[in-house]
Amino acid sequence: MIGTFDAKIPPGPLAQKWRSHRDHSRLVSPNNRRKFEIIVVGSGLAGGSAAATLGELGYRVKCFCFQDSPRRAHSIAAQGGINAAKNYQNDGDSIYRLFYDTIKGGDFRSREANVYRLAEIANNIIDQCVAQGVPFAREYSGYLANRSFGGAQVSRTFYARGQTGQQLLLGCYQALCRQIAAGTVQMFPQTEMLDLVIVDGQAKGIVTRNLRSGKIDRHAADAVVLATGGYGNVFYLSTNARGCNVTATYRAYKRGALFANPSFTQIHPTCIPVSGEHQSKLTLMSESLRNDGRVWVPKRKEDREKAPGEIPEPDRDYYLERKYPSYGNLAPRDISSRAAKEVCDQGRGVGPGGRGVYLDFADAIKRLGEDRIRERYGNLFEVYEKITGEDAYKVPMRIYPAVHYTMGGLWVDYDLMNNMPGLFVIGEANFSDHGANRLGASALMQGLADGYFVLPNTLPNYLAGQMGKRPSPGAPEFQEAEKNVQARVEKLLRVNGTRSLDSFHRELGLLL
Ligand SMILES: Cc1cc2nc3c(=O)[nH]c(=O)nc-3n(C[C@H](O)[C@H](O)[C@H](O)COP(=O)(O)OP(=O)(O)OC[C@H]3O[C@@H](n4cnc5c(N)ncnc54)[C@H](O)[C@@H]3O)c2cc1C
């Protein structure tokens, strides 16, 4: 194994670890920062925020993504919101409570020091994004609004209608563009990393392929940051964008980077059910809908084919409210997903194939009016209608669990560095602070905490010892990596097979 496998958690009480770590970490002085080149692979919320911040600090950054623009990273799909413990609602929230809920949501398997740091930093993220102009929802008074997400008994989720990821990404992209214009960040869109280059046991560069021209290039750096997202698509059907692949992580793994918790997959309870063999993707209906929607199935199997309106109240089973009265419809994702599967396995599932449960807004519409519901979730109702042809203001939505987020990923220590020195991993690509059953609205929180606040403070700890050690892209290790990439690409192009790529992917997904 290359490097060490030590989490390097700073000593001292939980609440003081991050401050004292920063107080004692090594620094790179402003004049020396331009002497370092950093590769950031990925320009979603994690990579974009890291590249922009490192550029602003004065490092020279090369940032890569396979989309035609950083604005199209998968982060754009995030709907529901981002957590922080501002306690604007005065409903008892605190940094400790956000920490504790996150640890509990992670089934007590999380790394406590990282989660505490995350809970502390969450409030800074909101301030940073507001300063960038991210249009978070506001109350009439002007205060930022909050809603509830699963696994919490307070309202701490900040949101921009059902497009929080898109708005956060636009803020992040602005910050990135500023650095591109200033010349500190060089952006390489439509460029895929196909190998990691290791020199003397340290990550010192990558080999890429230009997706338009096919040209293969070598890039040397003082450190490599992977912000390349998750691997939910391994299951074929998931809520992830079709483009999300795990090439970067896999290549790093093949070069000796350790991968942790591969089985920790988050199954999201509220997705549009599978409708047939033709499908290549599943669509999420944000968890925020469970703030106002009530989840139910018929009490009796015999009623499952009846129209929902024909099933009177006493014959309905609001099973989440019945089983988990303190959280009700906002029970954590794993619990809600398991409960939905159970009622469907009992033959009480609704819709084609019996793999669906109702998410019903009738009570909320009666209580608040259709306009209020439209204001809160209008675009989600539109997406639902486009896909199913049903108007959820009139009939309940049908939902079912789907693969959504991967907690597993490349292992990192407290500094977000892998066992491979010089390789840093941030956002969904790392193995996450959160343990097993991650809560909603914490992926955006983690990605932006990593990129805006953690990495810029921990990277110098490594860089300070690397002055003048950047290899040349002509070094033998780069030549070897390029030769391997070239050979692999040529082999794939020569196959001339008769089966489509997708058919292999589907078979693998079904197997998993
Ligand atoms: C439908 C949906 C809704 C969600 N809603 C929420 C929500 O409301 N709240 C929340 O907290 N979380 C939500 N999530 C989860 C959250 O959106 C993601 O976990 C998060 O955005 C991941 O960000 P990231 O920057 O780590 O990765 P991504 O946004 O996936 O970015 C990956 C980047 O890496 C690049 N890349 C990958 N491989 C390579 C390669 N080999 N070479 C070059 N570039 C590469 C890509 O081009 C891209 O720029 C949602 C997820 C989905 C699927």
Question: Can you walk through the features of this model?
Answer:
The chain is built from 14 helices and 17 strands. It folds into two domains: 14-264 and 407-463, FAD/NAD(P)-binding domain, CATH 3.50.50.60; 268-403, Succinate dehydrogenase/fumarate reductase flavoprotein, catalytic domain (Flavocytochrome C3, Chain A, domain 1), CATH 3.90.700. The chain is globular. The mean pLDDT is 94. A hairpin with a 2-residue loop joins strand 6 and strand 7. The chain has helices spanning 14-24, 30-33, 45-57, 95-105, 112-132, 164-182, 247-254, 319-323, 333-345, 362-368, 370-388, 443-463, 476-494, 501-511; strands spanning 37-41, 60-64, 82-83, 157-158, 185-188, 191-199, 202-210, 216-220, 223-226, 259-260, 265-271, 294-298, 316-317, 357-360, 397-406, 409-410, 423-425. The two termini are 28 Å apart. With 512 residues, the chain is of the alpha/beta class. Helix 5 (112-132) packs across helix 12 and helix 10 runs antiparallel to helix 11. It is 36% helix and 16% strand. It has a five-stranded parallel sheet with strand order 5-2-1-9-17. A five-stranded antiparallel sheet has the order 11-15-14-12-13. The chain binds flavin-adenine dinucleotide. Residues 41-47, 64-67, 73-75, 77-82, 164-165, 192-193, 227-229, 239-240, 244, 247-248, 284, 404-405, 427-429, 440-444, 447 line the site of flavin-adenine dinucleotide.
